[in-house]
Specification:
alpha/beta; about 45% helix
Amino acid sequence: MTTIQITRASDVLPPEEVAALQPTIDEINRLKKERNAIVAAHNYMTPDIYHLAADITGDSLALAYLALETDADVIVLAGVHFMAETAKLMSPQKTVLIPDLEAGCSLADNITGEDVRRLKEQYPGVPVVTYVNTSAEVKAESDITCTSSNALAVVESLGVPKVIFTPDMYLGKWVASQTDVEVVLWEGSCMVHERFTGEEISDYKRDMGDILVIAHPESPPDVLDAADYVGSTHGMINWVKRNQPKQVMMLTECSMADNVAEATPDTEYVRPCNLCPHMKKITLENIETSLETMTHQVEIDEDIAVRAREAVSRMLEVGRQD
């Protein structure tokens, strides 16, 4: 069973920790001003990055919009590599930096462009919907991308009886349960969300008085069946803001509860804690180094970029649905 942690807003960043980090934050801010740069942080970043270094925060879809809207010359992507690639796709004229090249994604590593080409040969004429948690190469072989917040809307926007959905099989199964469109799945999964189990959640509910549970659709079906709400990162945050429960169990990456606690101070977060080791490769220190040395710059082959950009742009036209 995973480790339980409880988070309140007062626990996020104690004053003593902020004081110790202040010299690093000051240098990051100086470099951002000098470079006309911003730090864009995913919800799974550690609280020091999310609350002290980030200029813009959000889920994958929010960060995709960011790349289109920012006036900065430099984007430091505090997240994983596919997110930095997506920012570069949408703003090719900007310099996009990722502080650690090893900040990858178990889900993105599960599929290649060649895999998608084989699927298209196996199902000729069937459009490919690809989750944004993929490389630019995979996006380039796809008709449209999606996030967990708009996956269902993207699938139904195509107006076809069948789609290929890659790479997350659990998100694909959840979409299939919500639509009449036939969904052909690729058997990929996220190393964070796949570790939750329905039995585990049932045990927690029994031991903690039927606590409310909210879950990400990348989780297995038995987990989603046990949840009171299923939605994207953005959707879960909004659900808590709307409902303001006294206590809630959030099934997702550990840092997210830390980061949203400040906006919902009356809610106690009880969470089975699964860390993403790839997200945790991004630190305040390597953000500072990234800005100082202008590394590591994200570059994408132009042929791949053109096709991948089209797939992402089609997703942005559908927009957010939760």
